[in-house]
Amino acid sequence: MTTSPLRAHVQPRTTARPIPQQRRTQAQRRAESERRLLDAAAELIVERGIEGTSLAEIGRVAGYSHGLVHQRFGSKEALVERLNTEAVRMFTTATLAAVGTTRGLAALRIVADTYLDLVQAEDPLGRVHLVVWTEAVARASERRSYRVTWDRYFRSAFAQLILDAAADGTVRSDVDVDAMSMVVVGLLRGVALQLMLDPAGATAETRAAVLDHLTRMLAAD
Amino acid sequence: MTTSPLRAHVQPRTTARPIPQQRRTQAQRRAESERRLLDAAAELIVERGIEGTSLAEIGRVAGYSHGLVHQRFGSKEALVERLNTEAVRMFTTATLAAVGTTRGLAALRIVADTYLDLVQAEDPLGRVHLVVWTEAVARASERRSYRVTWDRYFRSAFAQLILDAAADGTVRSDVDVDAMSMVVVGLLRGVALQLMLDPAGATAETRAAVLDHLTRMLAAD
């Protein structure tokens, strides 16, 4: 199972420096088992899709019983929702850290770059949202509604970044913010999905082209 | 079942002006049953995904037996491949008709506009490639390889359009053609998928923003 420093914030790794003679509390054991189950779920779902992954398989890969997976998450839908929440938290944490005090168009470029970094990172948590999202396209009724909510949230976050950058004068002021958010999100996801299918295309030139492109389309003259 | 004028080229509609006293040949009946089965398959796959659609269901919706579907296509994989071929043919025909004698950057804009038209048209044949493609992302081994081949073909078609437009001076000459093809395809697919999930976002402003954007990123100064 892959792990990454980016995951560190999700749950404190109590196993890193074990303290002898002191038993872990129930809360610590619970946090540890949840983290391992979410890691296993991300790995399996990215490899096989939601439909192709069972709770039993997730438990097996994480080293727990089927019963414990049910006890922790209740259903596959609930686990997928939780996994998505963790992915959002991880993206938010990584992005805020990368952006730091940068503002305006430069911040937008950093967010886009961080997004592509996480999608291509070893940790499958950075890709799981794409699999969940694309399965929602192919499965009309069941998963579409909560994907739509998340899609709108994701676009509104970019809309805010674009508004901030227009306010500080680094993004042109005639941008239609809602339409441009759809374009930016579309571009990032569309490129990310091509890279997932065909990693050979993931060259430094592609990456530079995506970011240049973002600048070209948004920069104030 | 939905049909559209765009579908007319797929098979001649012999039922439009029936000629009394003349029985249809076996080839005509075969063409008619294939067309109806492909229509039903596109409709069901767009609604439920490949996994959620059975050959028996396709036969039922088209008004044929399960046996006939097997006889015509052999397997679901073969049917999906055939459906994709029909979608490519339909896109090619519609795009060539829309482009006419236009060349350069203007032709690129027309191709992008036609792509979004077909994705949002009533006929599900215009959307089926997105479902097939997104399911390939979620199902690593089985369908990925032939999607990759098609992805590369699709990008190379855009690369050719960009090269043509650079040659006639309407697209800037410093474009990295391979990287920009991935950007253009990513943008179009990423926007198309958002629109499929959330049709409320499909406003005239979004559409205009996508095309303006394409111009802005590619136009010669």
UniProtKB/TrEMBL annotation, chains A, B:
Query: Sorted alphabetically, which keywords does the UniProt record give?
Result: DNA-binding, Repressor, Transcription, Transcription regulation
GO MF terms here are: DNA-binding transcription factor activity; transcription cis-regulatory region binding
Tree of life domain: Bacteria
UniProt xrefs under InterPro entries: BetI_C (IPR039538), Homeodomain-like_sf (IPR009057), HTH-type_TetR-like_transc_reg (IPR050109), HTH_TetR (IPR001647), Tet_transcr_reg_TetR-rel_C_sf (IPR036271)
From the UniProt entry, list the residue stretches annotated as the region Disordered: 1-30
* Binding region for DNA: 54-73
Bias regions of kind Low complexity — which residues? 11-25
> In the UniProt record, does the keyword Transcription regulation occur?
yes
Q: Which PROSITE patterns match?
A: HTH_TETR_2
The record's annotation in Pfam families points to: TetR_C_6 (PF13977), TetR_N (PF00440)
Q: What is this protein called?
A: TetR/AcrR family transcriptional regulator
List the source organism. Nocardioides marmorisolisilvae
Q: What is the lineage of its organism?
A: Bacteria, Bacillati, Actinomycetota, Actinomycetes, Propionibacteriales
